[in-house]
Specification:
Length: about 260
């Protein structure tokens, strides 16, 4: 039976930060000189009471300069391992909780951030309802999601290693760049979408193998050999293993209702 998105997230993230760290490491090979976190940080309203839901390892707050005053930061995640890392972020309040049942009062925050996390939920619309509830009227929502073709060249390695479950979409819900703006518009106003321009150009095989292992577990010798041969051939032909990216930032405003 196919695991639910939340069950898959528990197996991947509840007890370790290693899988997420391996995946983020691959994005160091992005061709955009401005990395994702810097690009995102420029577009976030960083003032007042800010909540990031599903904050993972807190990497955003290690890469973005926070205002010296005027920002009260709250970080949440369902994972005990992630919360342990989040407690290393200076000045942040950290809470382990479910994104669909936030332990905060109505209208408690000026900004809510959901960076690459909605697709891990069994009921993403319930989370959007919660985001609207805890935002003040006029408060801002920032949601990052991926398109259906995101990392397609990595997904294509699944059949090569006989792991058809490698494809990200096989264990996530239908929250994508194509569908999410309309979902958000059901609860928020002034919805805008901006795509982050980037692709990966990976010059060596090892980072790709580390990504594969983070997704499906340790590779057998045969799986590693098959993946290595294909990736190395692409590197020799194209100068790098090139991977398409399709990530968007969706911004919206909490209405007065």
């Amino acid at each position: 039976m196919t695991a639910t998105p939340s069950a898959r997230a528990v197996s991947q993230y509840a007890t370790t930060t290693g899988n997420l760290t391996a995946r983020m490491a691959l994005h160091a090979y992005g061709t955009n000189p401005q990395g994702w976190f810097a690009w995102l940080g420029e577009r976030l309203p960083l003032a007042g009471d800010v909540l990031e839901v599903g904050a993972g390892t807190g990497e955003l707050w290690r890469r973005v300069d926070r205002p010296a005053t005027g920002l009260r930061l709250t970080l949440t995640d369902f994972s005990p391992a992630m919360c342990d890392r989040l407690r290393e972020v200076p000045g942040a309040r950290v809470q382990r909780c479910d994104a669909t049942h936030l332990p905060y009062a109505d209208a408690a925050f000026d900004t809510v951030i959901a960076n690459h996390m909605l697709y891990h939920l069994d009921d993403p619309d319930a989370a959007l309802v919660e985001f609207a509830r805890v935002l003040r009227p006029g408060g801002r929502l920032a949601v990052a999601v991926n398109g259906r073709d995101h990392l397609a060249e990595l997904d294509a390695l699944g059949p090569v290693i006989d792991r058809f479950d490698l494809a990200v979409g096989s264990h996530q819900n239908d929250v994508t760049a194509e569908t999410t703006p309309a979902r958000i518009a059901a609860h928020f106003a002034d919805v805008t979408v901006e795509r982050y321009p980037d692709e990966l150009a990976v010059p060596a095989v090892e980072p790709v193998l580390a990504y594969l292992a983070s997704m499906v577990g340790p590779l057998t010798a045969a799986q590693e050999s098959a993946a290595r041969d294909m990736v190395q051939a692409r590197i020799e032909a194209d100068g790098a293993f090139r991977v398409r990216k399709h990530t968007v930032l969706i911004s919206a405003v909490r209405g007065s209702r």
